[in-house]
Records
---
Amino acid sequence: MSHAFTPGKVTAVTGPSGRGKSTLLYILGLMLTPTRGRVLLGGEPVSAAADATRSRVRAARIGFVFQDASLDPSRVVLDSVIEPALYAGWSRKAARARGRVLLEQLGVAARADHRPGEISGGQGQRVAVCRALVTDPVVVLADEPTGNLDRDNAESVLRALSAATEAGTGEGGRARTVVVATHDPFVLDHADEVLAL
Amino acid sequence: MRPTSLVREAVATAWATKVPTTLVCLLVAVMCATTLATVGRTAAAEAQVAQRLDTAGARVLVVSDARNGDLIPEVVVDQARGLSTTERAVGVVVPVDVTNAVIGPGGTRVPAWTIVGDLADVLTLTAGRWPGPGEALVSARAQRELGMDHPVGAVQVASASVVADHNVVGAFTPREPFGDYAAGVVIAAEPGTIADSLHVVVTDSSLAAPAQAAVIGLLDPPSFDAITVQSPVALADLQAEVAADLGTFGRTLLLGVLGAGALLIAIVVLADVLVRRQDLGRRRALGATRTTILTLVLARTLLPALLGAVIGTAAGLWIAGQWAATPPATFTAGTATLAVLAALASTLPPATYAAGRDPVRVLRTP
C-alpha cells in the first residue's frame, strides 16, 4: 500500500482483526521496520534509520496513545505525561509546565498528582492523549484508544484527538496528523478519513 | 535524556520497586560484610605477617667467625655498614662477665659486650656521655645488679686470665634487635679490636638474600665452615610463603563471595526486568533509546548497591572489630568497590536483555 496521511485530519485505519492495523501503526511509529517500502515523515525517510535515531524521532515527533493508556502505576499522572519529553531531552521543569497546560486543556488537571489507580479509565485515556501531545509532535498514533471505554468517555477522547489536529503547532506551525487504528464504528463516524485494510 | 532526569528516573523507579531494590541492597551488604568478616580477617593476618617480617628482629643477619680467624676487623664492620642493603651494622666481641670494680671479683656478675662500630647503632644513651675507646655504658638493670647508685664508676672483667677495668660513663637502653644488652654492660672497642661476630640489620626483609651474599663477600672466609651464619632469609621465605598462602586463600574466598552475590543479583535484576517488561516496553515506545534503558536498569541497581556497600562495610568492620582483626583501609575500600562493581557487572546481562527487547511484542494487547 501507499498512503499519504493528511495533516489536520483524523484518519481511521480499519479492517478485520489480523489484517495489520496495529502493525501499520507500529511501522508508522518506527517501532517496526518495514520489510519493504519506507515511511516518510515530513518528506524525510525515517523508517530505515538507526534504532537510536528512530527512538529520538519517536520521542520528539511522534505521539502514542495505547489501548490501555499504559500509565506508570507507580508514578503520579503528571510524571507519566512528561515521560516522552524527558526522553526527548527536555528539562523536567519545562516538561512539567507543558504537561500541566495539557492536563488543564483536557480537563484532568485536578488529577495531576494522583496515581493511575486513582483515576477513571476515561480520565486515564485523556491523560494518555496529554502524554502523546507533550512534545508537540507532528504525528499522533492511537491504537484502539476507545477500546476499553464507554460511549461518553470514548467521545471525550475522540474530541481530544480531533482537537489535537487543529491545535497542533507541529513543525513550522503545521497541523498534526492523527492516525487511529480501530474497528469501532463509533470512531469511524468521527474520523475525517477512513483507510480500510 | 538528560543525566539529571535519568538519575531522577532511576531513583523514582528504585523507590517504586522496593522488593528488588531491597534485595540488591541486602545482597551487596552481605557481600561486603561477609568479605570483611572472613577475607578481611585473612587480610589482617597477612598484614600482621608482613609487619612482623618488617621488624628489625626479623631483618638481622649474624655472621660469626667460627675459628677465631680474625675475619671481622673494624674495616669490615665499616664496609658492611656502608652497603646499600644495610640499615645498621656492628661487630660484637664474645661477651665476658664483669663486676663492679669497687666491690671486686666477689660482686654480682653481669655480661659485657664489646662493640666494634658506632654504638648508636645498638643503643640509646639515657644518661652520661658517649664512651670513648675502652669505656663502658651500663643498662638500668645491670646498674642495679652491680650496686651502682649512678651510672658512673668502673667495672672489671671477672676473669682469672684477663685483667681489665672499664670506666662507666653513662647509661643506655638497647635498640632492637639488641634487646639482650639490657642485661649488662656495653663497652666501646679499643682501636684494632677484632670482633667475633658481625650483626647486620638489613633495610628490607626482601633484601635478606643479596645482603647475606654481600656481607659474606666482605668477610671472604677461607672455607665455608670458617663462619656460621644466622640468616633471616629462611624466616623471610617462610613468612612470605605463609603470607602468599593467606593471600591465595583470601582471594579464592573473595571470588567465591563476590561471585555468589553477583549471581544472585543477576537473578533478582532479571526477574525484575521480566516483571517490568510492560514498563520497559512502554518506555521504548515513548522514545527511550536502548542506551537509556540500559543505563536506567544499571542506575537502578547502582543506587541500592551503593547503599548496601555502606551498610555492609560498616557491619563487616564491626564484626571484624569484635574479632580484633580489622582489615586494612585499602582492603576495606577495595571490597566495597568490588562489591558495587560486581553488582553492576551482574546487572549488565539482564539490562542488555531489557534494552534489546522488542517494544511491540510487549505492547501488543492479546
---
Amino acid sequence: MDLGGILTFLHETPVGAWVRSSENAFPAAEVVHVIGIALLFGTIAIVDLRLIGVVGRTRPAKAVMKDCLPWTWLGFAIAASSGLLMFLSNAELYGVNTEFRIKMVLLALAGVNMLVFEFILRRDIAVWSEDPAAVPMAARLSAIVSIGLWISVVTYGRWVGFTLNASPFAMF
Amino acid sequence: MHDFANWLYYSSASETIQNVSWIIPATQTVHILSIAIFFTSILMIVLRAMGLAAREQSLQQVADRFMPWAWGAALLLLLSGLVLILGEPTRELLNPAFWAKMALVLVVVVAFWQLQVRLPAFDKPAGVTAVTAPQVLVSVAIMAALCVVIFLGRWIAYTQPF
C-alpha cells in the first residue's frame, strides 16, 4: 500500500469518520491538545532551563526531573492521543500538508534528543545533579536543542491550522 | 460594541495585521507557549501545596521561584491577546465565548494576586507535606479554572458572534 492508500485507510476509520461528523469532537480535541501541550512544554522547559543553568539552581537536577517528567509524559500522552484524533478526522489532508510533515520530523528529532539524553547523557547524573555549574556541556546542549525543537513543534502545529482547514465547523 | 469593533477593524494597525499573513499564527504561537509557562508555573506551586513536589522546599520558596514566571507569562498573554483582538476585533469582541473567557481570566488573576499576597499566612515550611481538604479543593479548582479558560479560548473559533 502506498502513502496515499494508507492515508485513505486512516481517513476512513470509524474514529476518523466520527470526529469528522461530530460538531464538537474536533474543537474538544483541540482544547485537550492545548492542555497536553501546556503540560508537556511547560514541564520540559523547567527541566531544560535547570540543565542549562538559567533557573532552579537551588534544587538538584535529579529532583527537578523527578517532579516534572511524569507530567511531561502525561502531557505527551494527552497531546498525542488528541492529535491522533484530529489527524484521523482528515488524514488525507494532514498527510500531504508540508507544515504537518515538518512538525512530525521535528517531533521525531525531539524524541531522538530525549533518547540520547535518557540513555547516554543522564548516565552519570549522580555526579552533576547537585551543582548547576557541573552539568556537562553535552547535557546543556541537549537541553537547548530540546527547547528549540519543542518551540518549533508548537509553531508548526499552529501553522497547520492556517494552511489547511480540517474542521468544517470552524469559522476561522 | 459593534461600532467599536468595526472602527478597530478598519484601523491601520488592524489592517496591517490582517494583511500580513504570519502575524496571527505567530501571535497565537506565542499565546500558546505563554499558556504553557503560566499553566505549569501554577501547577508546580499547586503540587507543592499538596505535598506532591519540591517537598524539601517551603511553599513560599516554590512560589518565589515560579510566580515571576507566571506573571511574566500573563503579561505575554495580555500582549499577544491584544494583538489578536486588534487583528480580528469582530471575531473576538462580539463573541460570547471571548467575554466568558475574559470574565474567568479576571477572576483567576484576582485570585492569584490574593493568594500571592496572603501566602505567608499559610506557608508550608520545608519538609511539611500535610494537606487539608480545603487546600486540595482550592488547588484542584485553580487547575480546573485554567482548563476552562483554555476551553473558552479555543471555543472562540467555534462560537457565532453576537
---
Amino acid sequence: MTQPLTQVRRADVCCIAIAEVFRGDGEIVANPIGTIPRIGGLLARLAFEPDLVMTDGEAMFTNADGAVEAWNPYRTMFDVVWSGRRHVIMGGSQLDPYGNHNFAAIGDMKRPKAQLLGFRGAPGNTINNVTSYWVPNHGPRVFVESVDVVSGVGYDRAAAAGPAATRFHSLRHVVTNLAVLDFEPAQHRMRLRSLHPGVTVADVTAATGFELVVPDDVPTSRAPTADELALLERIDPDGARFQEVPDA
Amino acid sequence: MPDKRMTIDEVVGELRDGMTIGIGGWGSRRKPMALVRALARSHVSDLTVVSYGGPDVGLLCATGQVRKVVFAFVSLDSIALEPHFRNARQAGTVDALELDEGMFLLGLQAAAWRVPFLPTRAGLGSDVVARQPEIRTVHSPYDDGEELVAMPALMLDVALVHQNRADAAGNAQFLGPDLYFDDLMCQAAARSFVSCERIVDTADLLKEGSHHTLRISRLWTDGVVETPNGAHFTSCVPDYERDEAFQRGYAASAKSPEAWEEWRRAWLDLDEGDYQQRVTAG
C-alpha cells in the first residue's frame, strides 16, 4: 500500500526515537536488541553518531559499510559491559515506575506460571552500563505497578543495594509504540517525555498500569527528515519495522 | 602423547546419578548433542545441569533426568523459549539456580582458578541475589568498602563440549566465530569429554584454522570422541548450520505427552549411527 508522502508512519517515528536515545554517546557499543531498536541504532550511526561501535548480531563488530573491525565473542562482550562502554536497549515483558524490568518469568520465579527468557544479561547490563528499554506494545500488562521478577534493576532497587549498585547504574529512556518516557531526576519515577504524532496524554496514561509523571507541556516526538527516511529505506528495505509497529 | 579416543557409550559410562554436568555451546549452537542424546537414553538421573542452555537442557528435562538447572537462559535461538524446559519449570519438576550470563562466566572462572568466588557488580539489586540466598555478597576489604556479589565457583564433576576438530590426545579446535565458554567448562570440571566433527593428526590442526582457534589443550580433557554431525540439530559453523526444520519438530514435541512419546520413539530410542542415517534420509 502506498502511503502519501505527508503521512508520518508510526514505525519511522519509533526508529527516530530509538536513534535519538544514542545521541551524544560517542565511541561506545550501541547494542539495540530487537527489530526496530536495531534499525534505529544503525540509523543513529549513519545520521548523526558516526563513532558508535555496533555488532553484526553475532561475534563481530562491523562498521557502517559492513566491514569487520574487531572480534567480539560473548566473552569479550562482558569486558565491554563491565567497563561501561556500552548502551543497551532491551525489550521486556514488564516494567515498573522505577524502571525495574522483567523478562525472566511470570509469577513466582521459584515456580513460575510462565517461564520466560530467564535473567539473561539484564542484571549485569543495568548495573554496569547505560540501559534503555523498547516496548512495541505499550499496555497495562507491560507497565505494571510491580514486576513479578526483577531481572533489570530499577532506580529504587539499585539505591537499596547500596553505592556499589548505583555507581554506574543509569536507565535513560523507554521508547514505546506510543511515546518516549524517561525518569524524572528527583524520585526517578517514569515520566512522559514526548508523544508520537496522533497519540494523546490520555492514550498513554490509559495504557500504563501505574501513575506516570506527566509534565504540563509534552512535546511531540519528532518526525524523520527526508535524509533519515532515505536511510531507513536503505537499512530496512523490506519494511520489517512496519511489521513490528503497524500504523495506528 | 596419550590416546584419549573413546566411544559415545564409554563417555556416558563415566556418568553417575547426582553428578553436576556442565554442557558447552550456547543456546542452540554447537551443543554436544550426540553425547546428550546418549545420556538421555541412559538411566543416569538426579543430575544438576549447568549450561548456557538450549535443547541439551530441554531434552534432559523431557526425559526426567534433571534435578536442578543452573542457567541464565534456556533458548533455541530461532525459537526464543525452550518448550520442554518451560514445561518442566512450570510443572515444578526441576529446581533452578538462576544467574546473570556474566555471573555464570565468573562462576566457571572461579572454579577453574580454584577460588571460592569472584566479586562482581552483576546481580546487585536484582532478584538473582534478592530471591536466592545461595548467592551472597562480600564487602571489599579495601578503602572503597563496596558491597559486591560474591559469585560462587560452579564446580563441575564433568564437562561435555563439542568442537569442530580435535586430535587423539584431546587438543580441541573451534572453527566458528565464537568459542562460547567451552574452554572454561573444561577447566571448571574434574573431568572433561570433548566430542568433535573430526579427529585429525596433531600436525594437521593448523591446516583449517590459525593458532588462535586452538583454545582447549589436552591439559583439560580426559576423553575425545569423533561424532560427525554430532551437534545436530544445533549449529556447528562452519561445518553446518542449525537444522531449523528438525528443531521445529523437536519443539512441537513439547505440546503433549503423546507428541513427546512419538518424537522420542523416532529420534531418541535409536543409537547415534541410526539417528544420523535417519537424519540424512530426511
